[in-house]
Amino acid sequence: xxxxxxxxxVLFLCASMAVKAQxxxxxxxxxxxxxxxxxxxxxxxxAEGQDLRxxxxxxxxxxxxxxxxxxxxxxxxxxxxxxxxxxxxxSNRGFRVIVPDQIGFGKSSKAFIHYSFHQMxxxxxxxxxxxxxxxxxxxxxxxxxMLATRFALMYPEQTEKLLLENPIGLEDYRxxxxxxxxxxxxxxxxxSTAESVRKYYQSSYFTVxxxxxxxxxxxxxxVTNSADFPRWAKVAAMTFTMIYEQPVVYEFYNIKVPTVLxxxxxxxxxxxxxxxxxxxQALYGQYRLLGKQTAAKIPGAxxxxxxxxxxxxxxxxxxxxxxxxxxxx
Length: 329
Hints:
Layout: H1 2-25, E1 41-47, E2 50-59, E3 69-73, H2 84-92, E4 96-100, H3 117-130, E5 136-141, H4 143-154, E6 159-165, H5 182-189, H6 194-204, H7 214-222, H8 229-245, E7 259-264, H9 278-281, H10 287-297, E8 302-306, H11 313-316, H12 318-328
Parallel strand pairs: 3-4, 3-5, 5-6, 6-7, 7-8
Antiparallel strand pairs: 1-2, 2-4
Helix pairs in contact: 3-4, 5-8, 6-7
């Protein structure tokens, strides 16, 4: 009898531990259980008959207030949470910092809509208008670089400077990536796991993997355990299609604002890389070449290159990046 009772106690403890582990590893697709470095507010927008919420942080200057603003546009696999050190550096130098999660990302609504860089730029302009900000420097990383470029093209009068950190879209993916329908991409996204996220980040984003990068995996991988993950995966597929179908590479010549590119030279990011053979992959995504080529297309643009750095300089080499960023502002 004692042994039997002991068996049930052990079974109960194991079950409890499993539930606890599941709760620890599972994140909601709107990241309600992810703590952001500063208070999060919400800006209401509407699209295609849907009322949506756009999350953002509005961080005031900590000292030496200079009256200037920087808005930060995150990459496709991230949200405002990964900008912490950049926000601190800018705030300490007197800048007000606006950090939105774009619709479809982070803590913002995961809407089933037609995703458009034009629409995103319009929403961000409306956010700045509501906050009483007439002009801002725009820093965009990865997919955020495509959005920042579109914003600068649409609103040059409101763009003080365009700052591009390893932006994607420096080549037209339609020229060499096989077309994949949104539905087929959705099936691919559904296969994501924390382990597949880790492998992708290790092989694509950083030159050397460090333990502190696991927090990025915890967030991006945590949503794959959510009951609502299919919605997240569908939105991820929709924004993949947006990137593929809405290039900005042909419009760099039309940029009319001061522009600086920050390029980690070891970056080899290609949207849809898995659809290419190893030989094909070697022909594209070469940022040590793409950075210079892009700077040459943008009138008066400057380029700052980082050795031994991959896709996310502000995380891989934070001090070097923030020094370069502040110097460019």
